[in-house]
Design goal:
By secondary structure, the protein is an alpha/beta fold. The chain has a domain of 280 residues: P-loop containing nucleotide triphosphate hydrolases (Rossmann fold, 3-Layer(aba) Sandwich), CATH 3.40.50. It is 29% helix and 19% strand. The chain contains 21 helices and 28 strands. α9 packs across α10. The longest helix has 20 residues. Keywords: ATP-binding, Nucleotide-binding.
Length: 679
């Protein structure tokens, strides 16, 4: 997409805000003085298959992370790029190459206080723990999707208690056990704080995605580091658990046990206890750092000046420079969150725009074409022994109370599935995908047939189901082979498993190439910023899935789930971890395919008819009438604008689920989101 030069962007160099009347320790944990960072040596030659870029990161950075200070300092890195946020936390741990090498030091870790406390903490990788969003679910065991739902416990299905200690070997030695042993009361205190106590003796593979994130935080805390770096800790957590975890982290940070550094997305709520912020752009340049209020005020000034400069323009529809787009998007998120006032919202917390960024009007009057049922659940209840995980309620069905979950999904319907962590959302989806073993016995029909045969009606096979379904989730991501090329990743939508040969025809090949062209900017790590697309797709056969950034991997799996236009598209937190602009592009592509593209203009994001549509070359059209969509998300920004039907599952024992229907896209009215989460 061509963009004209930036009209205004003042944050081209780092602005630092210093506080007075503060007392800092003489020995900071991390000290960086005019340091610039690289993933590999800037003078080194690329290996034959190395496609990753190597730009300078955080050039001329000056930062001190105090060991103790009065008042306390609690830092966070704020950036629209997941790659940049992760890289910043990595440099605090001593990772990435620093130039000059002496620019980064760890004075406090070399002090007598640390030596007497624990000599092993002299090393940054031991003293500074990292919990990242891209830690694979494989860490919890399970070699296939059904493993987490099976009732039989194998020897390798270690419990949460074992996971927290790190003793997950089949035959650990006595010295290893002695080194890792943690008092049970200490572990119970941590899991109680993280609301995981009832899972203490259960297989860790049965934890939900949000519970798994809390377990990783707990394991890091039990290592007793000096600093805990949490990379996007609130992704995948429901609003209530997010607040509770924030309160727990605050107590730990105040006691410096350990010190906490967070990475946050622009749409995340910045915890009140965070005192200092580093703001870095997508290019890896730190544009402001210092006290939170001053950094936010600076961003507000940049945002306001940008809006004023655009307001006085006489020509509307002018496309903006990428840096200006970034600033406006960050400003918009901060405004919506209440960190500073903005005029883009009405009194009810809703956007003043009438079209969502994925092309839907605020009140959508487009008639829906609803077809036959393709998923029918009539009284579903899933239990593991005495523990019920779904359907432990009586539901009002046509005015009559009935046991279990009753739910019908029809062609043409677009569902949002919401609920607290552990409420059964992923379990519900596993019945639709037939990954759950109890699908055989539960009253579930897929495409009008049960898994087991009945008189005159054969049972539906797993291959019949998979051939009509596209699925993207954290579980799929964790188990997906990293040695497939980007092209083969998309082609695997036409195979029974990712590693078997896909059955491609000319139409399938056209769809693959259309998607690769459409998302070349996001998927091609060899591409230079602002370089026009060449149309050459050789890179897609050379770049491996595992070489992509976390955001790009999520995009590739999203495309894999949607590229065939299957009867059911399941997006279980599929947009979590994507960079903001990439997520918006995927949301538009989901509903409209190549028919529309978003232009970032002075009037805001504007979906317009694409050049491909104008030329009659559309290959991938977006969601069709024969398709149903099931979407799970804890973030309002990640819910597609086409979603109309929704269900909110309650925590087990808290009553029946609530069903509803929206009259337009969630993005444009905050009231719709509040309606889902009201208790």
């Amino acid at each position: 997409m061509r963009r004209t030069p930036a009209l205004f962007f003042a944050a081209s160099r780092c602005v630092r805000f210093y506080t007075s009347r503060r007392k800092l320790s003489l020995d900071p944990i991390v000290r960086i003085t005019n340091g610039t960072f690289y993933r590999r040596h800037p003078a080194s030659k690329k290996e034959e298959h190395d496609t990753s870029p190597n730009p300078p990161l955080f050039p001329n950075l000056n930062l001190e992370l105090p060991s103790f200070s009065t008042p306390s300092q609690h830092w966070a890195i704020l950036s629209p790029s997941s790659t940049i946020r992760t890289a910043f936390l990595q440099i605090l741990r001593g990772e990435l190459l620093c130039f000059p090498p002496t620019a980064r030091s760890f004075p406090y870790l070399l002090s007598p206080a640390i030596t007497s406390k624990n000599p092993k903490l002299r090393y940054p990788e031991r003293a500074i723990e990292y919990v990242g969003f891209d830690v694979e679910r494989k860490a919890f065991g399970g070699a296939y999707l059904s493993a987490r739902y099976e009732s039989r416990v194998e020897e390798t299905d270690f419990t949460l208690a074992q996971y927290l200690t790190g003793i997950i070997e089949m035959n650990p030695g006595e010295d290893f056990i002695k080194e890792r042993a943690i008092k049970k009361e200490v572990m119970l205190k941590v899991v109680r704080e993280l609301e995981l106590e009832r899972f203490f003796d259960r297989p860790v593979s049965t934890l939900s995605n949000g519970q798994g994130r809390r377990a990783r935080i707990g394991k890091a805390l039990l290592a007793k580091p000096e600093v805990l770096c949490l990379d996007a800790p609130f992704i995948g957590l429901d609003p209530f658990v997010s607040q509770h975890i924030s309160d727990v982290l605050h107590r730990l940070a105040e006691a410096s046990a350990p010190r906490i550094v967070l990475s946050l997305r622009p749409q995340d709520v910045i915890p009140e206890w965070i005192t200092h912020i580093v703001y870095a752009g997508e290019d890896g340049t730190v544009q402001a750092l210092g006290q939170k209020d001053e950094v936010l005020q600076y961003l507000k000034q940049q945002y306001d000046e940008t809006e004023r400069s655009l307001t006085v323009r006489s020509d509307e529809g002018h496309e903006l420079d990428p840096k200006l787009v970034e600033l406006r998007e960050v400003g918009k998120h901060l405004s919506e969150r209440g960190d500073f006032e903005a005029s883009s919202k009405d009194d009810h917390g809703s956007s003043s725009t009438s079209i969502s960024r994925d092309g839907f009007e605020k009140i959508d009057k487009t008639p829906a074409t609803i077809g036959e049922p393709i998923v029918e659940m009539e009284g579903v209840r899933i239990k593991y022994g005495p523990h019920s995980v779904l359907g432990d309620w009586q539901q009002d069905v046509g005015g009559e109370p009935k046991d279990g979950l009753w739910m019908t999904i029809r062609r043409g319907e677009h569902w949002g599935i919401f609920g607290a962590n552990g409420s059964g959302k992923t379990t519900l989806l596993s019945l639709v995908t037939s990954d759950h073993p109890q699908t055989y016995s539960a009253p579930v029909k897929l495409f009008g047939r049960s898994r087991l045969p009945s008189p005159g009606v054969p049972g539906i096979t797993i291959f019949d189901i998979q051939s009509q379904m596209g699925h993207s989730s954290p579980e799929v991501h964790a188990l997906f082979p990293k040695n497939l090329s980007v092209r083969r990743t998309l082609e695997s939508a036409w195979s029974d498993t990712p590693i078997t040969k896909p059955r491609l025809d000319s139409e399938a090949s056209r769809r693959v190439e259309a998607c690769l062209r459409w998302f070349a900017t996001e998927l091609n790590p060899q591409r230079i910023d602002n370089q026009p697309a060449s149309g050459d797709l050789h890179w897609a056969s050379d770049v491996f899935f595992g070489e992509l950034s976390f955001s790009a991997q999520r995009i590739a799996l999203f495309l894999r789930a949607t590229i065939r236009s299957p009867s059911i598209v399941i997006l279980d937190e599929a947009f979590s971890g994507m960079d903001d602009l990439a997520r918006d592009k995927c949301l538009l592509f989901l509903s409209h395919g190549e028919n529309m593209e978003v232009h970032y203009t002075d009037a805001g994001p504007k979906p317009v008819e694409s050049e491909v549509k104008k030329s009659g070359g559309v290959v991938v059209p977006g969601l069709q009438e024969h398709q149903a969509l099931l979407c799970v998300s804890h973030s309002r920004q990640e819910v597609p604008g086409c979603v109309r039907e929704w269900v909110c599952l309650k925590e087990q024992g808290m009553g029946q689920p609530r069903f509803g229907r929206w009259d337009g896209p969630l993005e444009l009215t905050a009231r719709r989101w509040s309606e889902v989460w009201r208790r």
